[in-house]
Amino acid sequence: MPSGPTPESDTVSSDTPERPGGPPIDLPPLRDDGLPTLATGEPVLQRWFVITLLILVPLALAVTVWAFLAIDREPLSAAERRPAGGPEVTIARGEAMLSETRDAEPGPGCSQAIRVVGDPGSQTTAGAALEALCGVIDSGDFPLLREGLVEWIAGSGQLRIATFELSGVESSARLEDERLIVELNAKFQFQDARRAVPSLVHQLVLLTDPAWPGAPVGVSTELRAAEEQLRACEVLEFGDDLPRGCRDAAELLAADDPVADLLAVGFRDDR
User: Fold this and answer.
1) Residue 244 has pLDDT above 60, yes or no
2) What is the pTM of this model?
3) DSSP string of the chain?
């Protein structure tokens, strides 16, 4: 009497599929290395190809980074780090990121009529820089700076800290909403505030230009500003660690043709 089907005869191993009309196919063992495989257990990509890619991709990235860093860039000259802004801006600084806080407090000492605008950190830096600036002005040896301060105060002056698009620019001034606003590069928040004084000296002298606002700052005014910066740097006694403002002023005045350099970056020919 024929026996019925047994459980074993009804079960087919998933590892040994049958070819239609033929015997089961012997398959290689499945590889469990995380790479995709076909139903037969064979890898979709050869292992040597995958390993080669894993080596070449980071190598290509490293070469790209090296090539980018190896590009020979011409360093900016002193004049190029203080380009003329235009009829209502002393020095071009591109776009600027300003503090969302518009709180204002009076400046210290000789700058009490100046409003220091920004968040508490910005106000602390700006206030300390103004205090050091007043020390230079109060010495009595810088009448041109006092003249610039008077102009700034007469223009309902404000001082604020900003992050400049042109990061090499240390300070700028502009006529905005009928106010004369001087801006300092935000980098001074991470330095001794005294190092911002040469940049404030720069702007005070530029504010004395008789044609600005209304025309770009003149070459003669910019050269006088560089001279005043150097004098202030000596008074402040920075030693060998000179701020960028001091070094730029010295480089500009020592150039073969500083007038031509300044004309090339947009200053007005007022000779």
Assistant:
1) yes
2) 0.73
3) -PPPPPHHHH---TTSPBPTTSPBPP-PPPP-SSS-B-TTS-BSS-HHHHHHHHHHHHHHHHHHHHHHHTS-PPPPPTTTTS-EEETTEEE---SEEE-S---EEEPSGGGTTSEEESSHHHHHHHHHHHHHHHHHHTTSS-HHHHHHHHHHHHTT-EEEEEEESSTT--EEEEEETTEEEEEEEGGGGGS-GGGGHHHHHHHHHHTT-TTTTTSPPBHHHHHHHHHHHHHHHHHHT-TTS--HHHHHHHHHHHSS-HHHHHHHTT-B---
